[in-house]
Amino acid sequence: MSRLARGALVLVALWMTLVAVLSAAPAATAENNGVGLRPAMGWSSWSFLRKDPTTASIEAQASAMVKNGLADVGYQYVNVDDFWYQCPGPQGPNVDSDGRWVIDPTHFPPQGSRNGIEAVADYVHNLGLKFGLYVTPGISEQAVVQNTAIEGTPYHADDIATSTSEFNYNCQGMVGIDYTKPGAQAFIDSWADELASWGVDYVKLDGVGSFDIPDVVAWSRALVQTGRPIHLELSNNLNIADAAIWETFSNGWRTGHDIECYCSSTSYPLTSWTNVATRFDQVATWAPYGGPGAYNDYDSIEVGNGDNDGLTPAERQTQMSLWALGDSTWILGSDLTNLDPTDLSYLKNRAVISVDQDGIDARRIVDTDTEQVFAKIEPDGDAVVGLFNTSSEPAVISTTAGMLGLPDRPNYLVRNLWTHERTKSDGTISADVPTHGVALFRVSPAHHWW
Q1: pTM for this predicted structure
Q2: Exposed/middle/buried for 81, CB within 10 Å: 0-12, 13-18, 19+?
Q3: CATH 3.20.20.70 correct for 3-361
Q4: 364-448: which CATH topology?
Q5: What angle do CA 69, 70, 71 make, to 5 degrees?
Q6: Where are the beta strands (DSSP E) in 108-227?
Q7: Domain boundaries, the chain
Q8: pLDDT digits (tens, 9 = 90+) for 403-427
């Protein structure tokens, strides 16, 4: 049965389940879990390492984050994506005696008394950084076949499992959980407790759709009850109709499909202009959602490796500017051990980072075939505006202080956040913008500087 058909058949049952889950215990939402007050900044393994994350490669990226000065400007999460666990085949991930995934020792071998994930998490923490890990909704079919115990309860996997397939892009073989059954929340709690004991600070829950709302609620509660502040990120291409639920029960959510272009047999190029350009509409559409504790996620920033990014220098500034204006989570996908010097200067631009970290989503004020303009007002009354040229030729892009929402003044100070040049304007904000490029300005009314 197709995913769409399955979703239609279970829609009523899903919402009945959600009501039961929500009424079963006091609310514990991820947006007030003490993390995610600003968009998360860091790095993830998927874009560059793909299916081969290892102890050595993850530790190398973490070390580079510190040595390159990225940690000094706010990057803090080092996240292991898929392929960290044992996957014997389509029957689902290998599980322990309590039904939870088993670490792949060929990728992450144990070190003394510590398992391989604990050891890497310790390494990351010792650098002053935070560590993230990847899971998918449901329970492994292997747990159901073995009827594994649910830790701390008299229940077993078969008591809570359904026959509905869940997404797992590596092994597959995950099935749904009936959260109206005793032991269902306890199973997720035990899994979250295990991750917390390993030192996990960030959980990416992938393959999530609207039919997984009970899983999202369960994971939100489970992570909060661990007592460890753990960021919960949802992926991917989530339904905007359920944005209020994503806001309530997570710290961030992917608004679209993967940013990677998958256009060669290697990780490079990381992305393409076509994929980046799809985010203009997403940033505009999702602008009403997100704020302190819970932010939109437009996927990885694919800047850092020069031509291997798949973007021109102008396009790299466009991606970073658009993500900043949209207050997106700021997770890098590039190889931090081999950074292009120009790209590194982009990634460490504090003025642009501050736009992302202000907790304010920009609104789109111009939308044509060749131009996009996004703007937002900062708490101090300044405006930040991005003038984007989406055409195949250089162009002059203009707006006005009035369109940005600024008060009428005889003069304005205009600061280019990429070049750091300062100019004065009588109210017209204009720039020569290269193909697929951006002019990112902070505009201050005269009384802020005169």
Answers
A1: 0.93
A2: buried
A3: yes
A4: Immunoglobulin-like (2.60.40)
A5: 90
A6: 130-135, 139-140, 161-166, 174-177, 202-205
A7: 3-361, 364-448
A8: 999 999 999 999 999 999 999 999 9
